[in-house]
Structure formats: structure tokens, C-alpha cells
Please model this.
Amino acid sequence: MPRRLAVSGIVLGMDVKKVDVSGKIPSSYEIVIHGGRKFTGIDALWWAKKAEALGAGEICLNSIDADGTQTGYELTLTALISENVHIPVIASGGAGKPQTSGRSIDQRQSRRGIDCFYGGITAPIQLPK
Model:
């Protein structure tokens, strides 16, 4: 007999790259595939909202631009997505030290809690309201 998955069991992985604003990409963030080498023409904010409506329970949000830099998260992207969906967002791509990234996210003063991914360990960071 088939069993239903809990909503939180469905995680959307999004690889996102900053692009110029256009009619197709009004948020200026586009979904990319193949390690950021292939552009899809899908607006990241639209896709996050659509995935939530389709039943995604979490979003793992990876900034291709920040990935591997260890200079901190792409805070504008993280805030854009987390403030426009009602499901948890896991920030990925750009983490250096947990202390530095946490401070950067706190300074953004986002209204939602964001989980941050550090080399295989997910650490929750509660943001100010």
C-alpha cells in the first residue's frame, strides 16, 4: 500500500544565478542546471512559489555565484526567497565560518529563520523579527 510523504519530506534544490532583470526573469535570479552552465529561463522567485504550491516542504537554495567562495551567502537572494515563501529555506553556497555567515544574515534583518549549510552540517540561525 502506498504511503504519503510528509510535506517536509519534499525538498526543492534550487541552483540560482544572478542575471539582468528581464520580462522572463523579473527577480533577476534565474534557475540554472549543469553546475550553473545552462540557463533555464525560469525565474527563481516564481519557481520557489510554484514549488511551495505543488507541495515542497523546504527549499535548499544554492547561489551559484557565491558557491565555493567562502565569503558568505548571497543575502539578497536568500532574503528574496525566504520572505516570499512560507516554508523553511536552507541557504547554501558561500559559507565560510558559521560565525561570519550568521552575523551577515543577522545584519540583513530578515523576518524568517534560515538554516545554513556548512560542509555537511546544517545549523539553524534564528533571525531577528
User: Anything to note?
Assistant: The chain has one domain: 7-125. The radius of gyration is 14 Å. The first strand starts at residue 11 and ends at 18.
